[in-house]
């Protein structure tokens, strides 16, 4: 879909690319207030899980799970948060966030209160992407 911000994300943000998987792309969120915060979004423009056939849906969920496992290995959080809404950007995408009980918004959802964005330097972004990618490749 030409005006969908998620459809263009992979091309528009090459510095945040972590992995191209079979069904999804994985990108680092620009705001790293929650270290490791990633997006997992379908390559195909689709809005609902039930729009996918069962095999594709299972493959997508396996890829979301693989990203969560990689984030757990890289950041050792107390909990992984998953969010799939699509109200503002109607393209299936998960917000996958490692959460620590020491973070300032614990235990509330990451969007419950405004916070100052934490944008990494280019070098820090490259390092964070490489860390997550290495854990994802380990499986």
TrEMBL record:
It comes from the Bacteria. This is HIT family protein. It comes from Geomesophilobacter sediminis. InterPro entries: Histidine_triad_HIT (IPR001310), HIT-like (IPR011146), HIT-like_sf (IPR036265), HIT_Hint (IPR026026). Residues 5-106 form the HIT domain. GO terms for biological process: nucleotide metabolic process. Pfam families: HIT. A motif (Histidine triad motif) lies at residues 91-95. One of its GO terms (molecular function) is catalytic activity.
């Amino acid at each position: 879909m030409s005006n969908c911000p998620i459809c263009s994300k992979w091309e528009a943000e090459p510095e945040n690319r972590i992995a191209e998987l079979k069904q999804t792309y994985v990108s680092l969120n620009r705001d790293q207030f929650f270290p490791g915060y990633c997006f997992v979004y379908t390559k195909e423009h689709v809005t609902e899980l039930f729009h996918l056939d069962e095999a594709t849906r299972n493959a997508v969920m396996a890829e979301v799970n693989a990203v969560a496992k990689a984030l757990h290995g890289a950041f050792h959080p107390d909990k992984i948060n998953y969010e799939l809404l699509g109200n503002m950007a109607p393209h299936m995408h998960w917000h996958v966030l490692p959460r620590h009980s020491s973070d300032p918004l614990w235990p509330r959802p990451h969007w419950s209160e405004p916070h100052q964005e934490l944008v990494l330097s280019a070098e820090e972004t490259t390092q964070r992407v490489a860390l997550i990618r290495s854990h994802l490749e380990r499986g």
